[in-house]
From TrEMBL:
It is a multi-pass membrane protein. This is Adenosine receptor A2b-like. GO terms for molecular function: G protein-coupled receptor activity. InterPro entries: GPCR_Rhodpsn, GPCR_Rhodpsn_7TM. Pfam families: 7tm_1 (PF00001). It comes from Paramuricea clavata. It comes from the Eukaryota. PANTHER family: ADENOSINE RECEPTOR, ISOFORM A (PTHR24246:SF27), OLFACTORY RECEPTOR AND ADENOSINE RECEPTOR (PTHR24246).
Amino acid sequence: MATYKNVEEYNHSHLCFNIYVDIEHRTFGHLVSDITVCALDLALMLIAVVANILAIAAYRRTSVLQTPSNYLLMILSAMDILLALTVQPLFFIWKILELANRFSCEVYLGTVLLINFLGAVSFLITSFLISLERYCSVFYPLLHRKNANKRFFKLALLVISMTWLAFLLAMFIGKHHRVYFSVAASVVALCLVGTILCYRNIFREMSRRCGGERIVSVESITDERRQVGRFKREKAILMNMVFIVGAMTLLYAPIGGCVVYAILIGRDWLYMNFFVPWAYLLVFTNNAIHPFLYGWRSRGMRQSINGVIRSVFEETDV
């Protein structure tokens, strides 16, 4: 850990495990920004942990909610909790040390590596696995109903996590930062394009099925009602996933902007003191709002979460 006692000593570029970081004199604007970011970080960390734990408890409590799509959402909630309990405390320590005119390479690098790993895995779960699950539910419903889906999702998550972790460590330890960011940007772009095409095909298929010719007969009334009810449920789930993917894409976009800035200009004082803290804060916001999106778009999830909250308070009163 480095300590800087005066302005001249505090203004320089610091080599932090093969990464050059600009350490600049802190102005009043830096002070206000960091204090605000620290306060919001703690609040979002508390909200993310509590809200995601409630969502997981609601899922485990209600058998109706234990569908493949909700299973993936609970994996995403678990990743959100892990990020909130690892990255956000490290980020808070990093900013507190800067307020005390100190800089720790270990804390800075730990924050950067963890948010790159957990953030990337969360994004891949949202844009790849959830989109694949929705595609199978519409085009391959028989395969989608099999119990083997959960085992497949667990295996896919393990492969994605281990592959990305190995790639991340190899690139940073080997000083190939530009290669890492270029590959990461390409993967994100491919996932977004694939997600857009996937949902476009799903909406087209659902519109085709709902808009097809209907044969009115006594025998077909029951089947038609069942089909309409199923399409309504599928559409509600699909819109829920669209909102989750859209929210994550919007809130993760500033991180992409920071990556481009770091590649083109470097990790200067503007990047370190303003761009990165507020971009990270948007990622933390994404973790905190996920359970609210689940409850907003799913009446069953909302009611189950409310039931968990009521049961907690009832046990407390006793």
